[in-house]
Specification:
The protein has about 260 residues and is α+β, with helices and mostly antiparallel strands. It has nine helices and nine strands. The protein has a nine-stranded mixed sheet, sandwiched between helices. The protein is globular and about 50 Å long.
C-alpha cells in the first residue's frame, strides 16, 4: 500500500491561534495531545496540555506547535519547536524541534521529509541557521525501553533510519562517540537519559566543527526554557556538561553513517 504523504500546506500554527484568542485553540490542542501521547508512549517524553497552553500564550517565547491536517481537517501529525538566541562562536541562532511526528497510517519517508520542510521554512523565517532535535538513541536504551518505544507504531531503529534518510547529523567527539546529552525532568517526570541531539541545516554539516562551548550553549539555553530546571544544580545538565567539557570540540557526522557502522554495513 502506498501512503499519501503529508502536505505542508495543510498546517495550523497554534501560537497564531493563541495570539488571536481563537476558540479552536483548546479543542485542537486536546485532540493533538491525545495523538501525541500515542506517538510518544515513553514516560517523560511529552508535557501536559496545560504546560503547552502556557508556552503558546507566552508572548516572550517563540514556542509553537504546527498541527498538520488532511483534506478532511483531521490531525495527521505535528511539529513542536522554538527558536533560540545562542550567540555562540559559530551558532548564533538555532531552532529546537522538540517533537516531529506523523500518524501511523500516514508514515513514509516522504511524509517526514515534508514535515521537516515545514519546520525548516518556519525556522528560516526567524533567521535561525541551525535546527537541532532530540532522538531516541538505541545505543543508550534498554531492551525494555525499545519495546515500549515501539508501542508508538515505529521501532527505535526505524525511527533512526528515517532521521538518517532526511539528513540529520550528530556531533561526535574525538574518540568517535556521540556527544553526551540528556533531557532534564519535565512536569515532575523522570529525566530522559537515552536521548541524543541531532542537527540539520540548509547546507551540509558533514565534517564541520562544532565548538564544545556552542554545543553546551545550545543544550543549556534549550533546557533553561523547561519550567523548574536550574542549570547550576540539575543532575542531568551537570552530567552531560562535565562529559562534553572533558571531550572538547565536536565534529558533525551523518547519523546514517553511525547507524550503518553499528549494523556492520
Amino acid at each position: 500500500m502506498t501512503r499519501s504523504p503529508v502536505l505542508p500546506s495543510r498546517s495550523v500554527s497554534l501560537r497564531q491561534l493563541a495570539a488571536r484568542k481563537n476558540r479552536q485553540l483548546k479543542p485542537m490542542l486536546r485532540k493533538y495531545h491525545s495523538q501525541l501521547e500515542r506517538a510518544f508512549p515513553l514516560e517523560g517524553e511529552i508535557e501536559s496540555v496545560e504546560t503547552y497552553l502556557d508556552y503558546l500564550r507566552d508572548t516572550d517565547s517563540t514556542w509553537d506547535i504546527i498541527v498538520l491536517r488532511d483534506r478532511k481537517n483531521k490531525i495527521v501529525g505535528g511539529i513542536q519547536y522554538q527558536v533560540l538566541d545562542i550567540d555562540g562562536e559559530v551558532v548564533k541562532r538555532a531552532a529546537w524541534v522538540e517533537h516531529i511526528w506523523v500518524k501511523l497510517e500516514r508514515r513514509s519517508f516522504l511524509s517526514f521529509r515534508a514535515l521537516l520542510k515545514v519546520a525548516k521554512q518556519a525556522i528560516a523565517d526567524q533567521s535561525a541557521s541551525l535546527v537541532f532535535m532530540e532522538f531516541n538513541n538505541p545505543d543508550k536504551m534498554s531492551d525494555e525501553e525499545k519495546d515500549a518505544d515501539a508501542d508508538g507504531g515505529i521501532t527505535t531503529q526505524d525511527r533512526e533510519k528515517i532521521w538518517g534518510y532526511v539528513g540529520i547529523h550528530v556531533a561526535v567527539t574525538a574518540s568517535g562517540q556521540i556527544a553526551a546529552y540528556g533531557q532534564p525532568s519535565m512536569d515532575g517526570q523522570p529525566p530522559v537519559e537515552y536521548l541524543s541531539m541531532g542537527f540539520i541545516a540548509d547546507e551540509s554539516l558533514a565534517g564541520k566543527t562544532l565548538p564544545a562551548s556552542d554545543y553546551l550553549k545550545i543544550a543549556h539555553i534549550a533546557h533553561a526554557t523547561i519550567p523548574g530546571v536550574d542549570l547550576t544544580s540539575d543532575p542531568t545538565v551537570l552530567a552531560y556538561t562535565r562529559e562534553v567539557e572533558a571531550e572538547g570540540d565536536l565534529t558533525f557526522v551523518p547519523l546514517a553513517e553511525i547507524a550503518a557502522a553499528r549494523n556492520g554495513q
